[in-house]
């Protein structure tokens, strides 16, 4: 027979014979609440159908049952108390739900930062540009948002010939843009690259409409060079 504590709802499995036909005052082993419990009619009917053993025969010895849960106690003498397994409810773990919520918040913030700061992510790890394209996040090319103008002049430094290239990078977009590295290529009359190098212009983001100057040079430039071009590096870094 199942007995439920009216105070904490802990359930107990109790032998109806321990309560008797008139019921008995019991105490919850979980919260110590006491109340008078009356067996149900079905439990009493089942109790009456059990025939007592013949007087000449000794009652069979009850096998010992290992307890699996908490046990209730009856407000009677110790030898009359029935201690049977209680059907305890599983313990809840609220900290587990809190942990999942914190994890989801951290993942969401990391994903949001990766989206808003994708320019910085691409500069730190250029292959990430392809990943952004796969998920539908358009990554503007430097040539679409920045304009480069440059001119070259030759001079000497301590008697050594030098090629000096000066120019400006301007932001022609309505948003602030990072300035990637620039690459200089010197070509000969056949349009073959005979010398090249790259250099940094600025580590700051360029505001809309703003521009930043740059200067780069190389000593003893290739003698076969007849033309020059300045472009952004392919990896943006």
CATH class division of the largest domain: Mainly Beta
Largest sheet: spatial strand order: 1-2-6
Tell me the number of helical segments per DSSP (H or I, 4 or more residues long): 5
Structural class: alpha+beta
User: Average pLDDT, to the nearest integer?
Assistant: 76
Report Rg: 43 Å
Number of domains: 3
- The proportion of residues in beta strands is 25-35%
- Coarse shape: rod-shaped
Model regions low in confidence, pLDDT < 50 over at least 5 residues = 62-71, 74-89
Give the CATH topology of the largest domain.
Answer: Immunoglobulin-like
Give a count of the beta strands, DSSP E runs of length 2 or more: 12
Largest sheet at a glance? 3 strands, antiparallel
The level of helicity is: 10-25%
Distance between the termini: 77 Å
Query: What is the CATH architecture annotation of the largest domain?
Result: Sandwich
SSE string:
EEEEHEEHHHHEEEEEE
Q: What are the key terms here?
A:
single chain, 237 residues, alpha+beta, Immunoglobulin-like, 3 domains, three-stranded antiparallel β-sheet, 5 helices, 12 strands, 21% helix, rod-shaped
